[in-house]
Structure formats: structure tokens, C-alpha cells
Amino acid sequence: MHHTEDELAGLDIGALLRYGLTAAPGPLRTSLFGDGAVGAAVLLDRLGTEPRSVAFLADTVRAGGVRQAAQLPEPLPRPEAAALVRDWLESAASLAPGPDTDDTSARWLRAVASIMELRQRTRR
């Protein structure tokens, strides 16, 4: 199915995280890493976020966990992007804690950063 950027940006990323992070491989996980990652990339790109900032946040989540990252005063440099991603981190942190949730959250953030970078390169 083909979605516009506006449709992808309108997805409830928090809900996709809550249901997709702990789901077994299948439709929920595919939605999170597919449409959800693209929607998140569109939103962050529209806020002027650099892919490397999201990649750094992914490394932070991998190192310290999603709960710790959700408590960062500024998870991304721009206030609007920081508020948006904090909501996503809090959605992820509301799930059962543990290395699996942290690792999957970090991999998802890395996917978002990769999509953002690809979008930037194709615009040049």
C-alpha cells in the first residue's frame, strides 16, 4: 500500500512503539520498522533534525536503556524534536524493561536515522 508523507507523518508513532517493540516478528513489528520508521523520519526531518543526532540517541539508548534516555533533558538538539522524541521514548519505556526492549528501540531509532539520511541524500 502506498502512503503519502503526510499520512505517514500522521501515524501514532507512540502506539506503534507500544505494540511493535515487544511483538514477535510479524505485522506489528513490520509496521513499526516500516511505516512507523518512515513516519518518524518525516516528522523529525520536517523539524530540521540531523540524522546523526538520531543515530547518537540510538547509541545512547543501546548504552543506557530507553528509560534513561527518556529522562534526558534534551534527547535531541531542537526543542520541538526533543519533545516529540521524548514522547516516543516514554512510550517505549512504558513497556516491560529489559535489554530486548532497549535493543529493539535502539535498532528502530537507527532505522529512523538511516531513512532520514537517505531522504537528505536524495534531495541533493
Structure, briefly:
The protein has 124 residues and is mostly helical.
Give a description of the structure.
With 124 residues, the protein is mostly helical. It has helices at 5-9, 13-20, 27-46, 51-64, 66-70, 79-93, 99-123. The radius of gyration is 13 Å and the shape is globular.
Distance between termini? 27 Å
Shape: globular
The level of helicity is over 70%
Portion of residues in beta strands equals: under 5%
The SSE string, one letter per element, is HHHHHHH
- Count of DSSP helices? 7
* Average pLDDT: 95
List the helices and strands and how they pair.
Blueprint lengths: L4 H5 L3 H8 L6 H20 L4 H14 L1 H5 L8 H15 L5 H25 L1
Labels describing this entry:
124 residues, mainly alpha, 74% helix
